[in-house]
Amino acid sequence: MISLREHQKKFQDFFRDKEGRVAWFAKPGVGKTIGVLATISELKRQHGSCRTLILAPKSVLHNAWYRDSVHFENLNCVVVSGPSVKRMELLARSDCDIFVMGYETFRIHYDQLSEMGFDLFVIDESSKIKNPKSLITKACVGFSDIVPSIILLSGTPAPNSPIEYWPQMRCISKSIFGDNFFRFAYSYFVPKKRYISRRWVISGWDFKKGAQSEFFARLNSRAWFLSKEECLDLPEVQDITIDVELSPEEIAGYMKLLEEARLEASSPGMTPQKFLTSAIFSKLRQFVGGSVITDNGPVVVGDSKIRAFLDLIESIGDDPVVVWAEFRHELDRIQRELESVGKRVGRIDGSTSLSDRNRFVQEFQENKLDAMVCHPAAAGHGITLTAAAYAIYYSHGYSQEQYAQSRDRIHRLGQTKPVVYYHLVCRGTPDEHAMEVLEKKADLSELVFKLLA
Predict the structure, then answer these.
(1) Antiparallel, parallel or unpaired: β 321-324 and 223-226
(2) What is the pTM for the complete model shown?
(3) Which of 314, 323, 348, 449 is within CB 3.0–4.6 Å of 379 for a Cys-Cys bond?
(4) Residue at which a domain ends, from 230, 265, 280
């Protein structure tokens, strides 16, 4: 059984005080998942059952909710994903306390789910329902009205404007901001308009004079905001593994490539050391990242890892982040994706000049950049990136020295916040085996045998 930290216990108190309809808005790494699972476990002990539906991004269905649920002996959790027939079979199970699923699965099976008698509805990364017009948002609002208790979770609930709180708080209670979006909007905000294509369109919203204090008073009546800095009981450093589930098409492509690797590994004169430096092994490592180098340049082979990465970036929000990757075309793709969502990005790899490297570091430390995208061989020494308390390892190499040095860029003198390292890992692939090597649980020769077994 897990021992809860003080801030997790405070959330349980908040949940009870607000009669089971609340939002917990806190950055990643503070233990929201464990806090909610502990609450479900306690409710089941008190009432004999607590049938719970959890909506979450695909990237955390297994590696956060299901993985952490096993720490609670009285909870039985199932992830509802896969083909429609499999999903229906999972929904039909009567022995489960917790059903975890993605947003689209929820929308598809809304009618069946609404008849299953859930006691608690959890919306993880509730910023995904910030648009009042979306079908997912409307489904979540409708479902919230028929479920006794609800918990919203997000690190960045309103990334663009406070007006985005309305759909989320409407799920909790009509009494907070009312039942009509436009009545709410014009009660607290003034629209900003731009003349586009011969007509005026609303481009944003500003608070009405004097309305801001009432707005946040109502918001805070059911939303608990918690920063990492307030969690004084957090460990100084956390490592969190995000399991990335490949699509069926990606799995088929990977298995085909793996068969080619097995043939090459069994060729005369091939040794584990030679295989680890072979082109086919490099392709295996690249494949799980979503793209491989060919004679004609990089070719995209999948989106699973980059989507998991972007989900994580969304949950981190505006906090600065350092991203590490092993291949230049991965760095290219990561940089493009970050810039496409409005992030200001610096980059350090083998081709970065010394003057650009120094400029990027200075701008990052001065909060003029949102993200630094780095290769560990190029940025692992001699720089300080303590403006960030989050680092993401998109892919890993096998050098323990480079790995340790990369970690030290943010966890060093000058760092004032708890540090979180995220690792994106596709199980059963070079991703997982590289982690074992870096954590000194395996050596490189064992890696080859595991990979080709």
Answers:
(1) unpaired
(2) 0.77
(3) 348
(4) 230
